[in-house]
């Protein structure tokens, strides 16, 4: 059998090694973030490897993600953090999933029909996204204490999230850390002293070394081997995702022929072009039209013209390619192939978006470099 027509190949060994390296580097236990299908890598297999590598916690956005982890047999601590009114908090309580509360109304609703629901409180220290503002914090703490007293909930953590941790020169991170410390002190004085205290994401945990109050760091992108702040530093981790397919066709076109929709590329000379059978429905960014590159026969080949829904065209003139030849869209970069970071630059986005958007008709294949 030949390999699948188009697949995401995930090196679980790379993820394991990345997490182990991060455990050595970060002075806190790790919550490995496996939301969004583990940033496109496949949630359940990644979760298993993360636990093997010593992840004390798993982090997800939605309750459904947490329930899927439980259904797959994960019994360890899991935190979810993005809920809408009316979600199944009874089930979260029954399955021992920690949920996050942002405000008093949410706390009251969540604690109405439950016993022993594990709740972490989120303070908004400056991102202005989810979480209680500093002004709301005293009321949130009071409501949490009351709900805990009734037995409905147990407050298991207090946390916040950086707005700009990938820029170590931005003083905002220290301001946020100070606000977080103040909020923690307030909660402590009021009688809340939960175990899980966390603020940093990958960038915060690897670029800052001063957050000593935290017991956990939430690690997403770095576990997958990508740098959270590529402009600032390379963590020297191994990217786990390779996207590969095979050329559907190769042909010659004449000088002056337009390529793909809108003819945004016109062949300046006779050219050999190759048809790559994946497109934006698989997550190949249309914004990388005319700018991305793929790897064929050890040569970087330019994307010509627009990326379409199911396919795009590349210049195979230097690659001497034939139909059926392997196309690496991106990989770890060790052989010279383009990386997710290269595609991020080509499409004016961040590596996070490149890997987490890959999907569509791509299948997942797991390898383990050990
Ligand atoms: C996604 C997410 C993370 C992980 O961030 P990385 O930059 O990928 O490490 C951490 N915390 C929260 C709240 C998140 O939503």
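Q: What amino acid sequence fits the structure above?
A:
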């Amino acid at each position: 059998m030949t390999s699948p027509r188009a697949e995401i190949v995930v090196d679980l060994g790379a993820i394991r090694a990345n997490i182990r390296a991060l455990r050595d580097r970060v002075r806190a236990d790790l919550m490995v973030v496996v939301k969004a299908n583990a940033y496109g890598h496949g949630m359940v297999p990644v979760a298993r490897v993360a636990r093997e590598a010593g992840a004390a916690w798993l982090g997800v956005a939605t309750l459904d993600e947490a329930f899927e982890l439980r259904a797959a047999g994960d019994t360890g601590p899991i935190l979810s953090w993005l809920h809408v009114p009316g979600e199944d908090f009874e089930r979260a309580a029954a399955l021992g999933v920690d949920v996050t509360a942002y405000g008093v109304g949410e706390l009251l609703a969540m604690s109405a029909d439950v016993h022993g629901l594990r709740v972490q409180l989120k303070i908004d220290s400056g991102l202005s996204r989810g979480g209680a503002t500093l002004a709301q914090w005293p009321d949130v703490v009071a409501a949490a204490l009351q709900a805990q007293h009734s037995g409905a909930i147990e407050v298991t953590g207090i946390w916040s999230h950086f707005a700009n941790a990938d820029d170590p020169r931005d003083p905002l991170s220290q301001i946020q850390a100070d606000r977080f410390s103040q909020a923690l002190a307030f909660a402590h004085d009021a009688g809340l002293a939960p175990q899980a205290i966390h603020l940093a994401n990958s960038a915060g945990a690897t670029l800052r070394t001063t957050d000593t109050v935290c017991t956990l760091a939430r690690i997403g992108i770095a576990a997958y081997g990508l740098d959270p702040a590529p402009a600032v530093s390379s963590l020297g981790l191994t990217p786990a995702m390779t996207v590969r397919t095979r050329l559907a066709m190769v042909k010659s076109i004449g000088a002056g022929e337009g390529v793909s929709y809108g003819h945004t590329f016109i062949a300046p000379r006779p050219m050999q072009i190759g048809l790559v059978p994946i497109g934006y429905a698989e997550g190949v960014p249309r914004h990388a039209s005319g700018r991305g590159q793929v790897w064929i026969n050890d040569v970087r080949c330019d994307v010509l013209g627009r990326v379409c829904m199911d396919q795009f065209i590349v210049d195979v003139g230097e690659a001497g390619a034939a139909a059926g030849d392997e196309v690496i869209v991106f990989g770890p970069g060790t052989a010279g192939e383009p990386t997710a970071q290269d595609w991020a630059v080509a499409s004016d986005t961040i590596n996070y978006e490149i890997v987490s958007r890959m999907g569509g008709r791509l299948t997942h294949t797991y390898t383990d470099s050990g």
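Q: And what stands out in the fold?
A: The longest strand covers residues 153-159.
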